[in-house]
Amino acid sequence: MENAWNVRWNDGEKIVIKVFEGDSPKGSGAVPFAADLRKHGFHVDVISRRRAFPPPAKYAAPDQIGMLWCPYCVKWRAFEESAIRRAEYTTPVLLRCTICTISVMDFYVRHYNPIFTERYFTAKEMRQNPQQNGKQVVNARRRR
Predict the structure, then answer these.
(1) Rounded to whole angstroms, what are the CA distances from 138 to 8, 127, 128?
(2) DSSP string covering 77-141, please?
(3) Residues 90-133: pLDDT tens digits?
(4) Residues 6+ apart with CB under 8 A from 124
(5) Could you tell me the residue range of the domain that residue 2 belongs to?
(6) Looking at the structure, do residues 71 and 142 belong to the same domain, yes or no?
(7) What is the mean pLDDT of the chain?
(8) Quick one: 39 and 75 in the same domain?
(9) Which is it for the CA torsion 71, 77, 81, 82, positive or negative?
(10) Contact, 43 vs 9, CB < 8 A?
């Protein structure tokens, strides 16, 4: 299956997204289209919709503290707690990329940010079960 690329920009009134099909962003036409928009002064993001990308060696560490690698934006991004609200459904509040809205529950986000996810999910479990204080709880049914 080919990858799809979204070129996302704000035209002043709303966010506009144009979809390009192809395995590479340059070959699909997404990068040249984004370059033309940048020449006209727009802030443009090119986002992979079907394939996740690991951080390259030159981007081994983020520029700012608190940033996570977004494998779909292919950049270090800020993740904020939010929910996606549509007419048909509303998702739970999770940490999500501010640009492509992928959450930390995605396998590739967790895979490429292992230290963060280990700390985040451990802290989340501790907040939900503060009476356990890190002790392993044995299933009550198994003890009988």
Answers:
(1) 49, 19, 17
(2) E-EEEE--B-SS-BPPPEEEETTT--BTTSHHHHHH-HHHHHHHHHHHHHHH-TTTTTPPPPPHH
(3) 988 989 999 999 999 899 999 998 888 777 777 666 566 555 54
(4) none
(5) 1-51
(6) yes
(7) 83
(8) no
(9) negative
(10) yes
Please report the pLDDT score of residue 125 as a whole number: 60
Q: Which of 7-11, 77-81, 139-143 has the lowest mean pLDDT?
A: 139-143
Residue 144, C-beta contacts closer than 8 angstroms, at least 6 positions apart: none
pLDDT digits (tens, 9 = 90+) for 19-43: 999 888 888 899 999 999 999 999 9
Mark whether 77 and 13 lie in a shared domain.
Answer: no
Quick one: tokens of 103?
A: 């959450």
Q: 65 with 41, same domain?
A: no
Cα dihedral 91→94→98→99 (10° resolution): -50
What's the Cα-to-Cα distance from 24 to each of 20, 21, 31, 102, 141, rounded to whole Å? 10, 9, 9, 20, 53
